[in-house]
Amino acid sequence: MNAVTLPETTNLLGFDLDGLAAFCEQLDEKRFRATQLFRWIHQKGASDFAQMTDLAKSLRDKLATRAHIAALPVISEHLSSDGTVKWLFDVGAGNAVEAVFIPEDDRGTLCISSQAGCAVGCRFCSTGHQGFSRNLDTGEITAQLWFAEHSLRKRLGTEERVISNVVMMGMGEPLQNYSALVPSLRTMLDDHGYGLSRRRVTVSTSGVVPMIERLREDCPVALAVSLHAPNNPLRDQLVPLNKKYPIAELLASCNSYLDKAPRDFITFEYCMLDGVNDTPEAARELVELVRGKVSCKINLIPFNPFPASGLKRSSNERVKAFADILIQAGLITTVRKTRGDDIDAACGQLAGEVQDRTKVHVRMVRAPVQVHFVKSGKPGSAQG
Ligand code: SF4
Questions:
Q1: Which class in CATH covers the domain with range 74-381?
Q2: What digits encode the pLDDT tens for the residues 341-358?
Q3: Pocket of ligand 1 (CB under 6 A)
Q4: Hey, which CATH number is domain 11-68, 1.10.150.530, 1.10.1740.10, 3.40.50.720, 3.40.630.20?
Q5: pLDDT digits 0-9 by tens, 309-332
Q6: Which residue out of 98, 123, 127 has the highest number of ligand 1 atoms within 8 Å of its CB and is therefore the one to mutate?
Q7: Distances from the Cα of 71 to the Cα of 24, 191, 232, 347, angstroms
Q8: Which of 135, 175, 199, 348 could form a disulfide with 262 if both were Cys (CB 3.0 to 4.6 A apart)?
Q9: Which residues, at least 6 apart from 66, have a Cβ–Cβ distance to it below 8 Å?
Q10: Catalytic residue positions?
């Protein structure tokens, strides 16, 4: 799809309601006009000011010369046999980002991206292997939800809300793009926007401790933390940010986040990597790490293998044995269902086909992952 060339006007998807009110003030318009406009955009999916018939003609004319409402150009759309939909959006200069819609019986979840690429470089992550290109702006983050919600409504022939949950788990580390993230979260939560409850909006982070503390004050939504290892030596290798914010600091910030969080637990994501972090020793060490220390749920994620990782998915038996140890120890544990396997719906897998800017994966696969069991004292190594 070719990008539409727009005049130099402001994309209104880039504003939360306060931002839109400030924009309207520059046009000598009152706040209630901004609220009407916001509802047209986010609740009705309008992109043409002429549709907004309850706005004065003079305001519509002003808006037409100063503003626009534009989605990101869609490079491709993939529909899985299980109903999962994945879009690849063009964000310019050869960069692409992904959003994935996952329908379930009781909810519709949209996973969206916050950055083109990612600087954190997690070992098991396809996006991390592509390196970092740039932060998305607020409009580009919100545009993924705006487009997905309204295109799904059209497809399903409904005026009812389709997306009930948003997870910031697509490409990028959202807390490394904080100033663009927060207005987008506010638009999701705003009753005049998408009206999602704080419990149904989840920010997933690899553990940017100072920003967890800021999010707690500014916009506390549900928090998921990419843990993936029960000790620092292994986590240093899987999630390099751990060298800066090691596990003890991270868990302390999780506990402090819970004071204001909309849920009474933190979700710890744990990607199951064959022979690396999936052993019974690792499970027992994980129990020791979190039990009684932080209120949490553990979400075990089957690894989606991609060639450059040099890592393998844990067998179902291994995942079950790991989960059993956690459950017997009293930890609430879930195993994420894989969805959209036929369309590569895991984070970063399509965008990686579009661009690998830094060749970071070449550096990453050279070093095999060393396995450390801090308590059991049984170090070993796995194929990297
Ligand atoms: S898992 Fe998240 S933080 Fe880590 S490299 Fe991938 S996108 Fe970045």
A1: alpha beta
A2: 666 655 544 454 444 333
A3: 118, 120-122, 125, 127-128, 171-173, 206, 226
A4: 1.10.150.530
A5: 899 999 999 999 999 999 999 999
A6: 127
A7: 21, 21, 41, 21
A8: 199
A9: 9, 10, 27
A10: 98, 347
